[in-house]
């Protein structure tokens, strides 16, 4: 599997374009994340099958509540110890339109983060034959539809600097974030987005870098992880993504091994503490979504 290969939205046609449109509509965000683009580029039939199996996870009221509580779990843990800084337009020396764009792009990441947390956990477990939906919820929210109003029309399409081409005014901060997360090269999309605004990028590391390296943020990540586990345990059904199910569907062992490794790395590897941090960055410019519902 060549993870440098991606099928971008502008290049997708036919049913692949349809899957992308469905992901965007279901995730409530104007973006198709890297995990979908690289899976589609390498194994398109599997990507389509995967989406058919996991899409219902994101369509319930229970998921809506999870997404709100995941966000709040992170922010409440941090706020119990420190005050999250608030950066206004004048602090960042940007034009009003640029500040609006910045906030809109971070709102998109804020919407997507809980969705990716669940996608990675459900898919990682299911691909390895581990339990999903071991203790199904029994209340109405478990199977009731996702509310139309939640996360509706919040974000803007993210733009970002190239994978490993940070300008001189952002390179030192990029290296600091890279060391913290343990990335060998490059950085996650959220940081490549933030690097477009070097003043904000630098301020976030200066003001919140010590928080990332503290027990406070470790607690925030643990609470987010607990929320994710509880939600996945309570799903009302189990996606058919185990090795035997995939073989029955016609996928070979090479593909199965590749996607197992990919989703395990995203669920348990260096990205594990990237997703909770997104809510801190969004909060710093007042772009977080609901925290109590």
TrEMBL record:
InterPro entries: 2-haloacid_dehalogenase_DehI. One of its GO terms (molecular function) is hydrolase activity, acting on acid halide bonds, in C-halide compounds. It comes from the Archaea. This is Halocarboxylic acid dehydrogenase DehI family protein. It comes from Haloarcula nitratireducens.
């Amino acid at each position: 599997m060549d993870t440098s290969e991606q099928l971008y939205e502008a290049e997708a046609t036919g049913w692949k374009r349809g899957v992308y449109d469905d992901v965007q509509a279901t995730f409530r965000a104007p973006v198709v994340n890297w995990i979908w683009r690289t899976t589609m580029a390498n194994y398109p039939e599997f990507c389509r099958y995967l989406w058919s199996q996991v899409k219902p996870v994101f369509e319930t009221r229970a998921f809506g509540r999870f997404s709100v509580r995941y966000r709040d779990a992170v922010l409440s843990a941090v706020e119990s110890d420190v005050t999250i800084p608030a950066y206004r337009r004048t602090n960042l020396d940007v034009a009003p339109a640029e500040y609006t764009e910045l906030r809109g792009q971070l709102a998109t990441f804020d919407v997507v983060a809980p969705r990716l947390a669940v996608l990675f956990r459900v898919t990682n477990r299911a691909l390895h034959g581990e339990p999903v939906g071991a203790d199904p919820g029994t209340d109405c929210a478990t199977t009731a539809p996702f509310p139309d109003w939640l996360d509706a029309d919040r974000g803007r399409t993210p733009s970002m600097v190239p994978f490993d081409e940070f300008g001189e005014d952002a390179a030192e901060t990029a290296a600091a974030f890279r060391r913290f997360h343990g990335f060998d090269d490059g950085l996650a999309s959220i940081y490549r987005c933030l690097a477009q605004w070097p003043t904000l990028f630098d301020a976030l590391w200066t003001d919140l870098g010590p928080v990332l390296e503290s027990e406070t943020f470790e607690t925030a990540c643990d609470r987010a992880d607990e929320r994710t586990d509880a939600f996945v345990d309570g799903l009302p059904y189990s996606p058919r993504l185990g090795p035997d199910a995939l073989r029955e569907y016609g996928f070979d062992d090479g593909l199965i091994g590749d996607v197992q490794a990919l989703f395990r790395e995203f669920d348990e590897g260096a990205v594990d503490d990237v997703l909770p941090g997104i809510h801190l960055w969004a909060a710093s410019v007042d772009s977080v979504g609901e925290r109590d519902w």
